[in-house]
Amino acid sequence: MRKNPLQVVNTDKKKINGFSKKTKAERRAWLVENFLQPGQGGEFLRFDTADVALQGVIDNFSENTVANFPLPFGVAPNFVVNGTTYAVPMVIEESSVVAAASAAAKYWMTRGGFHAEVVAAEKLGQLHFRWSGRPERRAALLTGLCTRVRAQTLPLTERMESRGGGVRGIRWKHLPEVSPDCYQLLVSFGTADSMGANFINTVLEAYGQELRRWATDSPELNDDERDLEVIMAILSNHTPNCVARAWVSCPIESMNLPGSGVDAADFARRFKYAVDIARQDPYRAVTHNKGIMNGVDAVVLATGNDFRAIEAACHAFAAQSGQYRSLSQCRIDNDTFHFEVSLPLALGTVGGLTKLHPLANIALDILGRPGAHELMGVMAAAGLAQNFAALRSLVTTGIQKGHMKMHLQNILSSFGATPEERTSTETHFAGKTVSHHGVRGYLEDLRG
Ligand code: MEV
Questions:
Q1: 173 in catalytic set
Q2: DSSP 8-state symbol, 19
Q3: What's the gap in Å between 286 CA and the centre of ligand 1?
Q4: How far is the CA of 290 from the centre of ligand 1 (A)?
Q5: Each residue of 312-337: pLDDT tens digit?
Q6: CB neighbours (10 Å) of residue 323?
Q7: What is the pLDDT of residue 398?
């Protein structure tokens, strides 16, 4: 017998209405009452900042807030990008990432540094609609439609135009795979130093309104072409034409790894081999790209940019050939090693969280208040550095050697180890496999 849908409606006692209207203290109390142990409410309090105004700013970033969730803000110094030396701010919870970026930056500092360029900086937005006209009519109607929507949105675009941005072009696509009457206006934008999400969405929604009016009163349309329904208007996070490229290169003979005993030519050969695997094998490519995103995301977060947008765009970009591939490439030409990455990085250095979050603001100060293009270059370099560091470990010592050091520190922190206990445990575990169980046993013995 089919279940009555009404019987599966949630009548749980934990259901709550008006949660968003409650004060933060009330929300915390409700959580403790319904989901936590009585003592756990104090955990929320521990992360509150004493600065009431700042706390208010943080609370307003999101909704239903019950606590702050701190992440470490680190800096990777010695990043030379296009001849300028940066200390790159990175917000990330994974141990070893900042250390790896710093080590790679220092390595390349003495080998010409990173080079970066913005290949293109176009952002896209889409307006989807249903329309009763025939697809062949688009060519004749597009110019009139463009003139109308552009004139109508002039007050919205004027300021952006004065900053070098604005609407760059409008294409009118037919999407018969969805339905014979499905169409899209694909609008390209320049957004200067801002990420531009609000600007793009505002313009697109205004286009939607004008499109409706156009269908009603345009003398260019026949009566059977006036049925038009706007479905949605939103920017596209697929930004294959908003791309930064970063690269390093040096003679293979300088690819030595001081103190490792690894031969430079052998290292370069194994390194390229590893990148080639990630170009061909999607299982490896995903992990390889995750390493790149370790660097990229950390800078995206530190500078108050949208890491979900960047993640989505980069992975779509990695799959644009029809197969998911490595975002970086390596080649060896005439005894010279070349390593590069191209990344779609639609980001901003003005507006949004970049302005509101005090630490994002500081991060941009540390970087010397870059424009969006400069930040795109630095971010691509951070991704390349991270990728270089990961592959360098993978094809030489293996990744665990470096990770174990950090892993040990994290385990020691979880047991509240004193400086003396740390030194003793580090000495004991040097060259040995580190496990939570092993460290606990060692500390227990030490503590008697
Ligand atoms: C770990 O966060 C990232 C790596 O797995 C990247 C890679 O394998 O290239 C080390």
A1: no
A2: G
A3: 9
A4: 6
A5: 999 999 999 999 999 999 999 999 99
A6: 12
A7: 85
